């Protein structure tokens, strides 16, 4: 039976017994985020959405990184379940040292798909020091931030649906793990394709075919590891859709509705059973689990809006005209309706539930 893992510990439950993971708080920015913000050349300049037209509809790395630690927690949980070549998991003691020595003979080739501002890439560099590491994203702004944070890693702009890992190369400089990374020549198969919270943006009809195509580019024993948010039924998402389309009380005449009523942000995700059946003919193993994170947001419902401005609100904000008044009205209506559902805790914070589905497949 497919097992559900709620943490890195040995606790496993059947899939139908899903329960919440331990909650998180909103701590100060991590060292990675602080370093990036301090070195960001745009941090004191014009906001991203009002820059040159090429970037006016781009994503904002600064906005995304406001919740760096919360967003990166799932990265750590996914990386912890990535097996080393041959299906081994990291351990301690002489066996681990021997495994590390074996790996050093041929640096692992790793590609971070949908790398964003490099927060997931940094975790991979720390977990696999000396690996030949590359990051791929479609957002110029995200890639610019990633290059600032991790100058020793190669980053490339590409469309995930057509990206060919075998055609890419990697930077021979040092990765963030502090160890010299050897460049992988074009044409070499990757050992790990890692995708944190990016595949959900693909249309449902393209998603599993893309995963299978990427799996096919791996070496035998190589790994595809990805996680996708499973949150479309969460209140914040249903409220967002209702406000955007004018279905929420008092929003039918909103000036934003004509622009947003036909926006389709993204498709839902496949069931674990469908993912397993698609992958298992080509995989030596398929590991699936589902985790619900409880994130404590100190800023109340305003923080929910700020969180979603970095991700889930993007399709809606991009569809609006360049009229700040309409944008403000839309966001204010959204926040008002959020406040009706997300009640403050005794300290004024709110708690959001964030379900995520994780998949790790090892190629035959």
CATH topology grouping:
Rossmann fold
Find the count of extended strands (DSSP E, 2+ residues).
Answer: 10
CATH homologous superfamily assignment: Vaccinia Virus protein VP39
Distance between the termini: 20 Å
Rg of Cα set: 21 Å
- Give the quaternary arrangement of the chains: single chain
Largest sheet: 8 strands, mixed
What proportion of the residues form beta strands (DSSP E)? 15-25%
Kindly give the count of domains: 1
The CATH architecture can be named as: 3-Layer(aba) Sandwich
Average predicted local confidence, pLDDT: 78
| Poorly predicted runs of 5 or more residues | 1-56, 171-184
Q: How many separate helices? A: 14
The CATH top-level class label: Alpha Beta
User: Based on helices, strands and strand pairing, what is the structural class?
Assistant: alpha/beta
Helix content: 25-40%
Query: What strand line-up does the widest sheet have?
Result: 3-9-10-8-7-4-5-6
User: What is the 3D form?
Assistant: elongated
**Topology as a string of helices (H) and strands (E):** EEEHHHHHEHEHEEHEHHHEHHHE
Protein name: Trans-aconitate 2-methyltransferase
InterPro entries: Methyltransf_12, SAM-dependent_MTases_sf, Trans_acon_MeTrfase_C
Domain Methyltransferase type: 111-224
Keywords: Methyltransferase, Transferase
